[in-house]
From TrEMBL:
PANTHER family: GLUCOSE-1-PHOSPHATE ADENYLYLTRANSFERASE, GLUCOSE-1-PHOSPHATE ADENYLYLTRANSFERASE-RELATED. Keywords: ATP-binding, Carbohydrate metabolism, Glycogen biosynthesis, Glycogen metabolism, Nucleotide-binding, Nucleotidyltransferase, Transferase. Residues 15-284 form the Nucleotidyl transferase domain. Homotetramer. This is Glucose-1-phosphate adenylyltransferase. It comes from Phaeovulum veldkampii DSM 11550. Its EC number is 2.7.7.27. Residues 307-410 form the Glucose-1-phosphate adenylyltransferase/Bifunctional protein GlmU-like C-terminal hexapeptide domain.
């Protein structure tokens, strides 16, 4: 199937989103939900960024492969992404690991997640497949990457970040020639190769791949028959193409979407409690590094029907107020002081309490006189009256999860354990 010159390439493509991972470094935040389903930015989920990028790029065919504790993610897809219409040639399929190949085999790796659904991808009748990770925060126009893929005649085009060489050892690193062709793929090398003409920086993989479907389909079938393969894109398929085919690097800066407020391309892996907290708190800055208010490139999500946020009481020591903060719908700040914080839908902050650099997930209740600093509070947690967090590191670590960066994660089970000991 050849690309049709009178059509945008994105209309001939599908997005295959890998959303099965737990994200174990997020600790208790992923005890009940997969990492792509973790809340972010006041009202969205992490996966909404990859899906919104695809939709805004013009891709109207998507598949989401799920595996680990997928109910929260699937429910979000059904509620927030159910607007695709088959009569307009639009499709969104949710593909849980359902033992379609054998009764004992779940998804063995990222490539196997696609292999097990080859027949479903065939039904889309697409020319290109864009493989995406469902757990990163960024804005990107995939049409730009698709155009490069076609123009260079690549077997695979890989989205790459430009990072200082000293930081590149934590990633899969691409060694490229002057044309951008990948000559070596190195997994977390001790001495990462620099970029020709820019030796102080290196190119690292974003986990975004563009393939012609016919090429990828044959490659997946061969890989599935290899007993020595781990059936993973980064470990197996990409190194194979680098050795025996044509792999091209696509620089994120060339397709990153900005509103004019962002000073540099923004991409974050919010895979740790510290990174998750920081990326959310960054949104409260006067000029945030990521502009989520850009209506030209909206982040689509499940829009709950809730009343507006409300601020009540106006007396010294009991004033409902929020400064440098994001406060979502159905929040009530009742005689509480909120600073540099982010309150998700339905939070309640009661009188005489104070929140500073707090990320409170949906439907958190903050009891009277609670004093909270540098916290992440899981969904539905009820903070007891007078709780103080963020002043005594040892006391915080005794009851809650305190990170190396000094951020405290609070869940309801942690509070219940604390209450049972304290009587």
């Amino acid at each position: 199937m050849k690309p049709r010159p009178n059509m945008r390439l994105s209309s001939q493509a599908m997005a295959f989103v890998l959303a099965g991972g737990r994200g174990s470094r997020l600790k208790e935040l992923t005890d009940r939900r997969a990492k792509p389903a973790v809340y972010f930015g006041g009202k969205t989920r992490i996966i909404d960024f990859a899906l919104s990028n695809a939709l805004n790029s013009g891709i109207r065919k998507m598949a989401i492969a799920t595996q680990y504790k997928a109910h929260s993610l699937i429910r979000h897809m059904q509620r927030g992404w159910g607007f695709f219409r088959a009569e307009r040639n639009e499709y969104l399929d949710i593909l849980p690991a359902s033992q379609r190949v054998s009764e004992s085999q779940w998804y063995l790796g990222t490539a196997d997640a696609v292999t097990q659904n080859i027949d479903i991808v065939d039904d889309y009748k697409v020319k290109f497949v864009v493989i995406l990770a469902g757990d990163h925060i960024y804005k990107m126009d995939y049409e730009v990457m698709l155009k490069q893929h076609v123009e260079t005649g690549a077997n695979v085009t890989i989205g790459c970040l430009t990072v200082p060489r000293a930081e590149a050892s934590a990633f899969g690193v691409m060694e490229v020639d002057a044309s951008g062709r990948i000559t070596r793929f190195l997994e977390k090398p001790a001495d990462p190769p620099g970029i020709p003409g820019d030796e102080g920086n290196a190119l690292v993989s974003m986990g975004i791949y563009v393939f012609d479907w016919s090429f990828l389909r044959d490659l997946l079938i061969r890989d599935s028959e290899d007993e020595n393969s781990s059936h993973d894109f980064g470990n197996d398929l990409i190194p194979e193409i680098v050795r025996n085919g044509k792999a091209m690097a696509h620089r994120f800066a060339e397709s990153c979407v900005t509103s004019g407020l962002e000073h540099e391309p923004y991409w974050r892996d919010v895979g740790t409690i510290d990174a998750f907290w920081q990326a959310n708190i960054d949104l409260t800055e006067f000029t945030p590094k990521l502009d989520i208010y850009d209506n030209a490139w909206p982040i689509w999500t499940y829009a709950e029907i809730v009343p507006p946020a409300k601020f009540i009481h106006d007396e010294d020591g009991r004033r409902g107020m929020a400064v440098s903060s994001l406060v979502s719908g159905d929040c009530i700040v009742s005689g509480s002081e909120v600073r540099n914080s982010l309150l998700f839908t339905g939070c309640r902050a009661h009188s005489f309490s104070a929140l500073d650099h707090v990320v409170a997930l949906p439907y958190v209740q903050i009891g009277r006189k609670a004093q909270l600093t540098r916290c992440v509070i899981d969904r539905g947690v009820v903070i007891p009256e007078g709780l103080v967090v963020g002043e005594d590191p040892e006391e915080d670590a005794r009851w809650f999860r305190r990170t190396e960066g000094g951020v405290v994660l609070i869940t309801q089970s942690m509070l219940e354990a604390r209450a049972s000991v304290r009587g």
